[in-house]
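I'm stuck. Please check this protein.
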Amino acid sequence: MNRNRYYLIVLFVCIILLPASSFGEEKEKPKSEYEIPSHVLNISKENTFPNSTEDQEIVEPSELTKELINDLEVPVENPDLIKMLNETTLKPSPLAIGYRGMVYVGRWALNYSSLDTTINWEFQPINMNELNNQGGDNSQKMNYVQQEEKEVKGALTNKITNPADIKKMMLLKSKEKTKLPLSYQTVIGHNTKKDNSYNVPVQKYATLQAYAPAVNEKGQVTFGEVYIELRGSKKSIVLKNVTKQGIGAWIPIQDHISFSFQLK
């Protein structure tokens, strides 16, 4: 057996016997772009103002509503429109041969399509604590203490018809994407405290700035005129004058604070 062939056989055996892990370390799972960073803390337990959770009602379409909207080219996702259709009673007579009618239900926001969802962890400043240790002999600790009650409100970024319906749909989509506790309003109560402490050395002046984070949601709303058409014993939904409009919103992250500690 020549030397080259011997080396090839040895190499082949080594490759077979080597564990799979030796070919490379297991890759870490990529962090979610909506993962809460370490400098953002949950204050739901410490908050002196009890925020109510803004849980959106999930409206399931009835069998009749499903029958009416499933074949439409434009998705109907507006929970208020689905609720209205659920409450509509349509029982055309099977003997109504030749009968035809069209009932105008109104112009509705039919659905919201999310195009971009980002987070500003320093959306709005809400508090600043200070500690002057420039004349001190020992290092000191400083903590976060909310100086006064702060209300943080979200809103749509431009005017649009049916704003209440659209805010609901945008909130639902944002919560679904980020898995964060979102609400258009959150309050940080006076004297709210957190145990996290920061070291302030001698001859230093420290500030601890607190911010309320928020999600910036951007997307597109589809509008349309909604009609219920009756033809004999058959019924269907007809959409007319369908249009699209861009929209954005700021939605605060409830009971969370972003901290920035600085020494001078």
Remarks:
- The beta strands are 40-42, 100-133, 140-145, 150-153, 155-156, 185-188, 193-200, 204-231, 234-252, 256-263.
- The first helix runs from residue 3 to 17.
- The chain has one domain: 3-263.
